[in-house]
Amino acid sequence: MISFDYKNLLHSTKIRTGIEPDKLELMQEAVQDAHAEIQKDRQQDILGFYDLPDQNVDHITDYINSLGDRFDTMVVLGIGGSALGNKALYSALRTPSQLRRKVLVYDNVDPVFLDEILDEITLSKTLFNVITKSGTTAETMASYMIIADRLRRTFPDDYTERIVVTTDKEKGFLRKLVNDSGYASFIVPDNVGGRFSVLSDVGLVSSAFAGIDIKALLKGAAEMRQRCAEADLMSNPAYLNGLLHYIYMKQGKNISVMMPYANSLYDFADWYRQLWAESLGKRKDVKGRDIFVGQTPVKALGSTDQHSQVQLYVEGPNDKVFTFLKVESFAVDYVIPNLHPDREEVNYLGGKKLSQLLNAEALATSYALTSAGRPNCTITFPQIDEHHLGEFIMMYMIQTVFTGKLLNINPLDQPGVEAGKNATYMLMGKKGYENYLEDLKID
C-alpha cells in the first residue's frame, strides 16, 4: 500500500515552526466533528464517491469488449473533472507500452490543439467520448459539434457508432440527444461532482478502453476507504494529512506544492490542483459569512524543477507546504555504465540505476527544504499500478472533503466558477444572458 511520511511536517530542531504533536491531540474534537459530518453526508447520499469502489463495472467491460478491434484511439472531449482524471490515469499507466489502445484528451478550446489531435489520429479508427453532466458545458459542446459534423460528413452510415456520451442519467441536452440519436452512453452519478468522478463512468470508460484494470483500481480505492473509515488520526492518512494542511493554512502557509518524482505521476498533480482548489477555495462558510479561505495548489516535477523552482522553495517566502510523490520500484530501469572509471567527477554514478538517482534527488530536496525550515511530506508508491493509484485517488478525495469540513465550508460546490460560465454565455450570444454583465454592474 502507499505510505505517508509526515515527520517533516512536525516540529523539530529543523522545522521550528512545525506542528507540535500535542496540537494534533488538541484538534481531536474537531476531527471527530468533521468525521461525524462526513458520516451524516454519506447517510444522506451526498458523498457518492465513497460508494464508487462497490459498483459493478460489467456495463463498461461489456461495451469495451463489443468494440473488438474497430478502434485504436479514444479522444475524450471534456474539461475539468471530465478530463483531468482520465488524463492522469492514462499518463500514469501508459509506460511501458502495456496498454492496448491510446487515449487523448481534448480539454481546452484552443483550435490549434484540436488540429494537432486530428492530425495525430486516424479518424476511422477513433472513438470520441463526450463527457459533460449538464450537457451544456460550452467548451465540450463546441468540440462535440465540430467532431460530430466531421464524422457525419465522413461516415454518414455509422457516425453515431463513433461517439459515446457520458452524461446525466435522465436530464440535460446530451441525454435527450442520446435518446434521439442512439449514441452509446454512460452515466455521471447524481451524487458525484465532476472533480470526484474519476472512479465513475467518467474515468473508467476511457481507462477500460486503454486496457487499464479498472477492477484493480476500484479495489485499491476500497482498501484506502477502509483505512480511512475511523477518526483515529494515526491510522487514517487522509484525515491526518488534511488536518496538518489545515493547521498550516491557519498559520499562513497558503500554497500547497505537489512534486512527483516520476513523469508518469505529473498529471496527477494536475488532478490534485482542481480537487484542492475548487473544493477548498471559498468566499463563504456554510453559514454564509465571508471568510475567503483556500490553499493554492502548485505542481512541480522532480528532478526537473530542482533546476527551476527549488531555489524559490528553499530560500523564498516560507508560505508553502510540500508533498513529494515517490516511487520505490519503476516498471523499467536503466543502469548507468561506468564509462569513465578514472574520473571522480562522474565515476560515482557508474553502476547505479536511474531510479536510485531520481529517488536520491527526492530525498535530497526534502533534506534541503527541511534544513531551511520548510514543511514537507512524502507519499511513496511501492510501484505505479492500478491498485496503488486507486488508493491515492480515494485518499485525496476523502482528505479534501475532510479538510473542507474543518474549514466549515462546502467542499462540493463551486459558485466562483459560475460567474465566468454565465459571462461566457453572454459573450457568445446565448439566449437569456444578454444583460448578464449589466445585472452584475460590471463595466
List keywords for this structure.
443 residues, alpha/beta, Rossmann fold, 3 domains, five-stranded mixed sheet, 16 helices, 44% helix
Describe the structure.
The chain has 443 residues and is α/β, with parallel strands linked by helices. It has three domains: 3-40 and 218-412, Rossmann fold; 48-212, Rossmann fold (3-Layer(aba) Sandwich), CATH 3.40.50; 418-443, no CATH class. It has 16 helices and twelve strands. Strands 1-12-11-7-10 form a five-stranded mixed beta sheet, sandwiched between helices. A five-stranded parallel beta sheet has the order 3-2-4-5-6, with helices on both faces. Strand 5 (163-168), helix 7 (173-181) and strand 6 form a beta-alpha-beta unit. Helix 4 (84-93) runs parallel beside helix 8 (201-210), helix 9 (214-227) packs across helix 14 and helix 10 crosses helix 14. The longest helix has 22 residues, at 386-407. The mean pLDDT is 94.
User: DSSP helix count?
Assistant: 16
Q: Rg to the nearest angstrom? A: 23 Å
Span of the ends, CA to CA: 54 Å
Instruction: Look up the CATH topology of the largest domain.
Output: Rossmann fold
Low-confidence stretches: none
Number of DSSP E strands? 12
